[in-house]
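As the work plan foresaw, the team has encoded backbone shapes as discrete tokens. One protein thus recorded appears below exactly as we store it.

:::
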Amino acid sequence: MAYDPRYPGPRDSSILTLQEHHRSQTILDGGESRHLRLRRSDADFWRTEDIPDRVLDYLRYLGFYGVYRIGRIQMDVGLITAMLERWRPETHTFHLPFGEATISLQDVSILTGLPVDGDPVTGLDPTLTIPEWQALCLRLLGFEPDAHFFDHSRLRIECLDDRYRHFHIADDAPEEMVQQYVRGQVLRLLGGVLLPDTSSNKMKLMFLPLLEDLDFARRLSWGSAVLACLYRAMCRGSYADQSEIGGYLVLLQIWVWERMPTISPLRRQLLEMPSEQQDPDVPFRLDGPLGYRWNVAFNVHHVSTRVARVYRCQLDTLVDTSRRVNFEFFTNINLQYS
């Protein structure tokens, strides 16, 4: 089919074979793409009282401390929806006016601090009975959840939230108790922040056995698993009949803010500090991963209205200039937090 400039759809339907079911087709047909419901369950995690230094040391050891430093960032449903309208499951890339772009493993490493090297996070979802899951939780987490908190191999996140809301680790607590606490916090991060499904209140227990040996867990490429999960969530969310989406959407949002500066909000506080080396090739240092600098208040006069239509127009007018987009490799960034 010859390309018709009056029709803004795909030029070659033999490549983008899923266009008929894609969110963008609704817009091309004169309709409106509905805002997606963004699913996560991490509010109570960030309300946890001060986490002991011994636990933070383990988060550093396992590679999750960067995510902890980023904290809870408010999601922009309009921005996420507009980006999903440009995500193509056929190519796993965003189709933008100047070409294709995607989130890379380097993005994951620099923005979140998650490890992207190491062994893959893989295995079978254990088919255990509820009593068997309870016994495993007792051994690895230090407590036995009531049976009504289980849904086959999933556990309601409120169970862990209730457990750790006012749970304190004494300075002289035995190492086994500290490790049980660490597994609980990492499981909350995995189920509520990094690998959430669309339930908003349940987490998969399939990750718990991977945390039994913390030295083994340290060797896993958690960043690769998070990115793969996000890719899968975006592929599903790009379909017109989908109304909700899971995955680590904070990664997508801060990736857009870093890579497309004209779409990013204006921060009211800068967390970057001058480089102590006074080296022009190292412009600043940051006490956290690069995504940490977005956990600040924004100037409301420079924040879009969280409406997908606004972002859609901004994306339509993006051009490939260093001022408007930046897809160079991250270099010369001094991140001093691990």
